[in-house]
Write a structure and sequence with these properties.
Blueprint (H helix, E strand, L loop, with lengths): L3 H9 L11 H17 L3 E5 L6 E6 L7 E7 L19 E3 L2 E3 L3 H21 L6 E7 L9 H7 L1 H4 L4 E4 L11 E6 L1 E10 L5 E2 H4 L6 H10 L22 H10 L3 H8 L12 H7 L2 E9 L9 E2 L2 E10 L5 H15 L5 E10 L2 E2 L14 H18 L4 E5 L4 H10 L3 E4 L14 E3 H18 L3
Parallel strand pairs: 3-6, 3-7, 7-17, 8-16
Antiparallel strand pairs: 1-2, 2-6, 4-5, 5-18, 8-15, 8-17, 9-13, 9-14, 10-12, 11-13
Helix pairs in contact: 1-3, 3-14, 4-13, 12-14
Length: about 450
């Protein structure tokens, strides 16, 4: 059987940066590599063209009575900049002290290779395994998956024959404590641009006769939160579901020292919605944040102008049951109502994502109609993680977003089992990204045991 670490090295050598056209050859190389590898282990591979980067569907068929699992991953990576902060070249992987370093090792090529290797090992041992498996791999996750929605619509009938999605694109707090993510926040993003005069103006000659675009934006931004951090937009919280007691209990098991967290952040005190501590707020509550703001002179020293233009970039993180379309409408209504009338402005749409929550089996509010194969997958994962990692997994919502998971649920109707594998020290999206090889090996064992159990072996 192939060596998964060597195969991962080969995979990482392809600089598959989806956002930058300069890396077109790297994208092509990564696509061809992983498609070829899946073909080598016996899968029928279809490369689905999109407007940007292709999606790979690799299938192992079988009797329709067999369970059907989709394994998701992505072959694109973040840009490696700033390159001078890497200890070794970003796309020349190197193993040091039990870790493999290189861009994409943890997000998502390492976890994806973990599942590929597990499947290869399993099918080599049991070539007649009664289980249908489909790998669904995209090349645009790091740029918001713009082609994925259309793909899901076009392939809905084929994909909905599956029972669940199994994937690893989430994290764990330590090498011995796995988290199965059962909630991800959705997204709404936009930019607001404010303009006043036709050009920058001398602040002495013209100050006092017009509103400064920076002032207009500052007043707008200041209106979006109350003094305890709650979002001040009518209806924003209307659809937020109550947090279940079992979810709070799972979070307590994770532990965490609030004072140490405050010092780590380097802030004088927390600023959380009333009734929620810091750890609850980042997993259970929606947010509105300002991700960038600008206007006027940015250089050294002074330049006394009234800028003609200012902008702010806004993102909302959404929780279960919130509708991104509805939230966007509420946000835009608030902007239109509160923007001063003596400036011009425009709202620039950006992408959005649906929040996602799945309730594991045997919880007080587990849906009665939950798929028995999905329930079996959760139980099998729980057993395998306990056996391999030495501790039972925790079931937690995540503060971040993986919008495609909500899209899969919305369009195809499939829930997901999200087995976390990357660690805080893996430096996702940052220089010196790495993946722990012990976690990789343990992850292979868990994946193999889960798939074997779903096949009834």
């Amino acid at each position: 059987m192939f060596d998964p670490v060597e195969k991962l090295k080969e995979f990482v050598r392809h600089p598959s940066v989806s956002t930058d056209p300069a890396f077109a050859e790297g994208m092509k190389g990564a696509k061809e590599f992983i498609a070829g590898l899946l073909g080598e282990i016996g899968f029928d591979v279809e490369v689905v063209p999109t407007a940007l980067h292709p999606i790979i569907l690799a299938s192992r068929g079988g009797d329709e009575s067999w369970p059907h699992v989709i394994i998701y991953g992505h072959y694109d990576v973040q840009p490696a900049d700033p390159l001078d902060l890497w200890n070794t070249p970003a796309f020349e992987p190197e193993v040091r002290d039990g870790r493999i370093y290189g861009r994409g090792t943890a997000d998502n090529k390492g976890p994806l290779m973990t599942h590929v290797a597990a499947v290869a090992r399993l099918l080599e041992a049991e070539p007649d395994l009664p289980l249908r498996i489909t790998f669904m791999l995209e090349g645009e996750e790091e740029m918001g998956s713009p082609s994925f929605g259309k793909f899901l619509e076009d392939y809905r009938d084929r994909l909905k024959t599956a029972d669940l999605v199994f994937m690893s694109d989430t994290g764990i707090p330590s090498k011995d404590q796995v988290v199965i993510t059962c909630g991800l926040r959705g997204l709404v993003l936009c930019e607001v641009e404010v303009t006043a005069a036709n050009s920058d103006l001398h602040s002495g000659l013209h100050g006092g006769v017009l509103r400064n675009p920076i002032q207009a934006l500052s007043e707008l931004c200041a209106s979006f939160h109350d003094d305890r951090g709650r979002v001040n937009i009518p209806g924003f919280y209307d659809d937020v579901l109550d947090v279940e007691d079992w979810e709070k209990d799972e979070l307590k098991k994770l532990g965490g020292n609030a004072e140490a967290y405050r010092k780590f952040l380097g802030i004088p005190e927390f600023y959380t919605p009333q009734g929620f501590d810091a750890f609850e707020a980042i997993r259970f509550m929606p947010t509105l944040e300002f991700n960038g703001i600008g206007g006027g002179y940015q250089g050294a020293g002074s330049k006394t102008v009234i800028p003609s233009r200012a902008f702010v970039k806004i993102s909302c993180r959404l929780v279960a049951n919130q509708d991104p379309v509805k939230i966007r409408e509420q946000l835009y209504a608030a902007i239109n109502e509160r923007m001063p009338k003596d400036v011009n402005y425009r709202i620039i749409d950006d992408h959005e994502g649906t929040p996602y929550v799945v309730v594991p089996p045997d919880r007080p509010n587990t849906p009665t109609e939950q798929s028995p194969v999905l329930a079996a997958a959760f139980r099998a994962t729980d057993e395998a993680v306990n056996r391999v990692f030495g501790n039972p997994p925790l079931y937690l919502r995540e503060g971040g977003s993986v919008p495609i998971i909500g899209d899969i649920k919305k369009v195809v109707g499939l829930d997901s089992v999200l087995l976390g594998l990357f660690l805080p020290e893996d430096n996702l999206h940052a220089p010196n990204e790495s993946f722990d090889l012990e976690v990789m090996e343990r992850g292979m064992q868990v994946s193999e045991q889960v798939l074997r159990k779903l096949a009834g072996r």
